[in-house]
């Protein structure tokens, strides 16, 4: 009986401690070692194998990776919580949505524009969210928004024009 009471006490005390003294206040944007964190808005986010992951699960995974140390901790620091919750669908594992600048936005749009089969809902939503978040001060945010919103709505009527607009921005 004493053991059961003790175990319950430890669980409750641990939970209260984490609740009141947790350094992870998700209501505020945070910074971790100079890398801006992302205040993630609720949305459909999936892991590489298609399972949905919550912000809490991403935070837990992030903390586990950090605690292991070594290369895994370095990768976690580079990806940030957002990179774990919403993995980059373009294959650049260490680039999260907060790190999308004009050069990367253009690269990703041109990648999709090279073949319509490369335009997926996941890629369009991921990049559209990165553009709308605009952590890097995008110069051509409106252009990217218009193109991505059209593609999101399966409107490819200006597909060639969209591709040309991005190519012209690179000149």
Automatic annotation (TrEMBL):
Entries under Pfam families matching the protein: DUF6241 (PF19754)
Top-level taxon in the UniProt lineage: Bacteria
Membrane spanning stretches: 6-24
Keyword annotations of the record: Membrane, Transmembrane, Transmembrane helix
Protein name: Uncharacterized protein
Organism classification: Bacteria, Bacillati, Bacillota, Bacilli, Bacillales
């Amino acid at each position: 009986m004493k053991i059961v009471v003790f175990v319950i006490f430890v669980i409750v005390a641990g939970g209260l401690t984490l609740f009141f003294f947790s350094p992870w206040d998700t209501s505020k944007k945070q910074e971790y070692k100079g890398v801006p964190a992302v205040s993630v808005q609720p949305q459909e986010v999936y892991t590489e194998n298609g399972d949905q992951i919550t912000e809490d699960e991403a935070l837990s995974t992030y903390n586990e990776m950090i605690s292991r140390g070594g290369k895994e901790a370095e990768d976690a620091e580079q990806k940030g919580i957002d990179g774990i919750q919403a993995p980059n669908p373009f294959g650049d594992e260490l680039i999260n949505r907060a790190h999308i600048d004009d050069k990367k936005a253009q690269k990703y749009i041109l990648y999709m524009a090279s073949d319509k089969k490369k335009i997926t809902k996941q890629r369009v939503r991921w990049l559209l969210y990165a553009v709308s978040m605009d952590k890097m001060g995008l110069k051509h945010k409106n252009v990217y928004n218009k193109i991505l919103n059209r593609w999101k709505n399966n409107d490819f009527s200006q597909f060639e024009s969209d591709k040309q607009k991005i190519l012209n921005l690179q000149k």
